[in-house]
Amino acid sequence: MSNLFRPCAIFAVFLSVCLVCIALPVRRAAAVTDGPESASSLPDAVLDDVTVRPKGTVPLSAFSADPGPLRLRDEAGEQNFFIPLARTAVLRDVILTLRYTNSVSLLPDRSVLAVRLNEATLAQIRLDPAQPAGEARIRLPAEMWRGGFNKLTLAVIQHYADSCEDSVAPELWTEVDLSQSHLSYDLGPLARPVALSDLGALFSPGLGGQRQVTVLTPAGPGADGLRQRALPYVAQALALRRQYAPLEVLHRDWTAAGLPADVPGAVQVLVGLPQDLAAVLPPQALPVVDGPQATLTDTGGGHSRLIVTGRTEEEVIAAARGLTLMNDALTPDSQVTFPRRDGGGGSLPLDGRISMEGGKSYRFQALGFRTATVRGKGAYQISVPLPMAPDYYTYENAKVVLKLDFSYGAGLGAGSILNFRINDRQIHGHAMDNKNGASFQDYLITFPVNLLKPGANALLIDINSQPPVSGGECVGSRGRHLMVQVSDSSVITLPEAGKAAMLPDLARFAASGYPYVGGDGRGAGTVYLGSADLIGPALTLTGRMAQAARGPVDGLQVVVGLPAPLSGQALVLATTAQLQREDFGPWAVSLSKVKAWPYRALQDLRTATTGPELSLGGLGGLLGGTAAKPALPDEEWMQQKSSLGDKAALTAFRNPAGQGDDLLTVVAAETPAVLAARVNDLIGPGLWGQLQGDLAVWGKGGQDLLTLQVSEHYQVGRDNPLLLLRLILSANPWYWMAGAAGVSGLFTLLLWQMIRRRRQNFMGKS
After folding, report:
1. Are the beta carbons of 392 and 419 closer than 8 angstroms?
2. In the predicted model, what is the mean pLDDT of residues 694-698?
3. For residue 214, what are the domain limits?
C-alpha cells in the first residue's frame, strides 16, 4: 500500500506545481489589468503582460501644461490630450497605462472612467469605492491613429446618489497620476522611400519623431568653414522642424577611412563637398551636384541620411541656409537644388516669424488664432498668442487696447462668467447674465503694456458656463445647449514704441534669443568654443535659440578656440579650466578654479527692492553710457576654490572687449562631457522657461536651479529719441520738476530784465 501511495503522492505534487505555474501568469495579469473591475465591458481593449512589447514610453504629463495630478470633478468632466504622431511613423501597437484614484463616495454601478481616442470610446473603467486606487491598461488600436495631432480624452461620469444629487458636490472626483500614467508604443519601418517632404515628419515633436541627430563633416582644417558657417544653419533647420520640442545635436568628423562606426540616431546628416562625400559613400549613394543641394535617402533598417552639399564651400552654406526656410510639403522629391541669386545669398527672410510692433493693430487671425467655440456647461479656456518683439519698449503708463468680438447663447445661468488674463494676470471680467444671449463687437478692454514680456505671450480667456437653476425638487438642466464663441476678427492695438532693452537678461534670451537674434542693427554674433568636442552642444544651443526666435538666426557662426580678446556679440561654451585667462578677470562672477559668488541672503534683499525696469538708467544708458559695474559691493562677495562638480553655469555680462552694447554669454562646466549633458538639460522646457537674471547654475536633470541678478543692468537701443525722452520723463518725474523750475527761473529772469530795462528807459527820459 505504501509502495502505491508514494508514486501517487509524487504525481499529486507534480500536478499541483503545474497548476500553480499555469495559474500564476493568469493571476498576475488579472492583478494588472482588472483593477477595480477595469474595462470589464470592453475586454478586447485591455491587455495582459505577455502582449506588451513597447519600443518607447512617454508619460501623459508630457502632453499636459500642468504636469501634476489631473483631477476630474463634478458629475461629468473630461480632459483632452493632443498627442502628435510623426507622419513617417508606422505604429504597430500603442498601450495606455492609467493610474488613478477615485472618491470612496461614488456609486460603483453608475460611476465610470471612459477612454476615447479621436472621439471613439475604447474602454470604460468602473470606479469602485471599495478599491479606490487602480491601474488599467488599454490598447489604442494603431489603425485609429493619424499623422499629426490625435485627441486622447479621459472622461468621467460620477454619481454618489440615485436621486436628488448635487452635480458639483465635493465628493465627486477622480484623480489621474499623469507622471505615472504613460503611453507605450511599438514602431515599424516605413514601407516607402523617404522624400524631403518627410523631413519635418522625421523631426516631429510627437511619437516617432527624432529627438537626436548626428551631423558629420570631413576631418581636417579644410572643413573649418563648413563647421563655422554651415552647421549652425543645419542645426537650426532641424530644430525648427521640432517646433517646441528640444533637439539634441551631436557632431562627428569622418576621415578617408570612412564614417564613424558609433554614430547614434536614426537620421545622419552629412555636410561636405562632393569630393569629401566620395571618400565615404558608395558611388550609387552620391548625388549629382549642380549647385547648392540637399538630398534625403534611406540607408536601410529604418535609418535615413540627409546630405547637404554644393560644388563650393559657399554653395554648401547656401544649401544649409535654404534648408532653414524650405517648405517640406512643396518638396516631394528626394533631392532639391537652391539656385543662388545674382549678387549672392542676401539676408534670410523671416518666414513665419511674427512679432507685434508698436503703433500697429493686429487681428487675432493674423496672430494664428482661429474662431473658437465651446459648448456645454463647465470650465474652459481659450488662448490667443501675442508674440512681442524682444526689444519692444514704450513709456511707462502706455496702454494696450483690445477690441473683442465674442458672443454667447441663450440659457446661461448664474455663475456664467468670462475672465480675461494676460500671462496669468487678471485684466477684466464679464458676467454672461443676459438670459437671451448676447453678441459684442469691439468690446473694449485696456491693460498696461508692461504686462507683456518679450517673446511669446498669451491672452487667456477663461469661460465658466452654468445652466440656470430650475424650479422644483431635484430638477436641473444638463446644459448641453450652452455656447460661447470668440471670433478671430478681434483686434489688439499696441501703443507707439521704440526698440530698446535692459541687458543682461537671461529671461529675454530664453524667450526670444535676444540679442543674438539681431535687433537694433546688431548682427547675430559668434559662438566661441573651448575645444572641438563642444561643437555638438553649441549646435544644440543654436537650434534652441532658433526655436525661441521662431525663425532662423541669420549669420550666426561657430568658432573653435577662444581668441583674445572676445569681441562683438559673443557666446562662449568652455570648461572652467579654459576660462583661466586674464581677459576673463573683469567678469563679476568668476567661473575658473577660484570662484566669486554673491551671498544669497544679501542678493535676495537686493532683488526684493529693485527691478530691471527699462527706465531706471535714464537717458545716459540708452545713448551710450558707462560700463556696467557689479551690483554688489566687494564685501558682499565670497571667494572660494572648488569645482562645479556635475553642475553647469550660465552667465551674461556686458562684453568688456565689445563695442558699446555687445553682450557676452558664457556656459561653463568642469568637462566637455558634463557641459554637453547640462546643455541638454538646459534646452528642456522645464529649465529653459525658468531662466532669469544674469546667472543660472543647475545640476543633473535640471535639478537645484539657482538664478541671480549679479550685475547692474545696462540699456541698449538708440532710435526714436522723442519716445525715449517721454519714457525717461515719465519714469523720472523729478526731471519734470527740475525742468519746470528751470523754465520758471528763466522766465522770471527774462521778466526781471524786461522790467529793469523799461525802468532804465523811463528814468532816462525823465
Report:
1. no
2. 90
3. 196-337
